[in-house]
Design a protein that fits this description.
Distance between the termini: 9 Å
Helix content: 10-25%
Largest sheet: 4 strands, antiparallel
Strand order of the largest sheet: 2-1-4-3
Shape: globular
Structural class: alpha+beta
Number of helices: 1
Number of strands: 4
Length: 86
């Protein structure tokens, strides 16, 4: 069984609000909520999910968790990605 992946919007570095209206603190279940997740951010996220699901590891941020940034240069949402082992 594949581990669950949880994504949380934890910060924003850009000067503008998210085009999808996401607010800091919003979370998604990768499998259940994939269709509502921003396609720009999904493009960055997808390889990271594969790495986590198939036994790899990703570098930790200065906060001690795994983070990735939205590729929209005006917005720059920062997401945390977590593998949830059941």
């Amino acid at each position: 069984m594949r581990p669950k992946i949880k994504i949380t919007l934890v910060d924003r570095k850009g000067d503008y609000g998210c085009h999808k209206g996401y607010e800091i603190g919003k979370t998604w279940d990768f499998d259940k909520d994939r269709g509502e997740f921003c396609s720009l951010a999904m493009h960055t996220l997808f390889p990271m999910v594969d790495i986590l699901r198939y036994g790899g590891s990703l570098p930790l941020s200065q906060s001690g968790d795994v983070r990735f940034a939205c590729p929209d240069a005006d917005v720059i949402n920062i997401f945390r990605i977590e593998k949830i082992d059941e």
